[in-house]
Amino acid sequence: MKVTLDLDKLLEERKINQTEYEKFSLLSAHSTATLAFNILVGFGVIAVGGATLALLPTSATAISLGLMIGAAGIVMIYTHHEQWIVLANICVVVGALLFGGGVISAEEGAAGTYLLIATVFASAGIFARSSLLTVLAVLALSSCLGARTGYLHATYFLGIQEPTLTVILFTIFSIATYQLSKIIAANYKDIAIAATRTGVFLINFGFWIGSLWGDRSQGGEIVIADWIFASFWAIALISAGIWAWQCNRRWLVNVVAVFGGIHFYTQWFERLGASPETLLIAGLIALGFALGLRALNAKLIKDNLHR
Questions:
Q1: Strand 215-216 with 155-159, pairing
Q2: Rounded distance, CA 16 to CA 268, Å?
Q3: What's the mean pLDDT in 156-175?
Q4: Burial 8-33 (b: 16+ CB within 10 A, else e)
Q5: How many CB atoms lie within 10 A of CB 275?
Q6: How many CA atoms lie within 13 Å of 162's alpha carbon, on the beta-carbon side?
Q7: Residue 60: partners with Cβ closer than 8 Å, 6 or more residues away
Q8: How high is the pLDDT of residue 199?
Q9: Predicted confidence (pLDDT) at residue 37 exceeds the cutoff of 50
Q10: Which has fewest Cβ within 10 Å: 89, 113, 155, 242?
Q11: Which DSSP string corresponds to 156-220?
């Protein structure tokens, strides 16, 4: 377990004495030096890998480098040298990303490719206990359903080709990983929670896209109307918010609030349009909502402290 303490404040409040202050400061200085060394070596690994890829810019190079760097990271993790753990995690993450990028380039983004990448990222995430790789694995899994993002000059895109399937499958996925987090070892709990939270975001993205365009067939005909998505999204947000409040799940309360605001503004301006009057009313409602959320967060923190 890691705990962050403000030693200067503890000394000022006389909760520790000068001898303890000096002892803890010495320990933290050693830990900081080790962390800095690991990060510098990690940047060196990234630089060497990037330079090699620039000299030999092929998919095979990226895949080979990814496998070698990732394998080196896994070996360092399982040698149980605590001072190298940060470098090991950097190597696993960089190796997985290089491998994934190489495979996507070689297969030109075929749907099955993303399933392979999701499997590799998830496996590497478990080995390295990396929440980042776990999140990337879930996002790669969503790409199997056609989820994607894009960027043009000053413009960002979010695409969900199968909003209904996205909502259903990732609802099941999120519930399953949340239940899994209750029974697995504490070392892996954060990984399962990261997967659950990513799934929650994808569910809301599916509802968001569906509430604007509905779900359409290959021929462009509407299969499920946009108002159905909008209605069920509101019900899902309210239900999740009530459950999160009752169970003191602050993260979910805040996520529900954020997507509730997105849902409100989306439907407000879709139905009423953007005018000075609608902007004023929407702004006032948002301010009241923000104050309510702040009060709710304060209450949840207080309740948590008294448990």
A1: unpaired
A2: 55
A3: 87
A4: eeebeeeebeeeeeeeeeeeeeeeee
A5: 10
A6: 10
A7: 102, 106
A8: 93
A9: no
A10: 155
A11: EEEE-S-HHHHHHHHHHHHHHHHHHHTTS-HHHHHHHHHHHHHHHHHHHHHHHHHHHH-EE-TTS
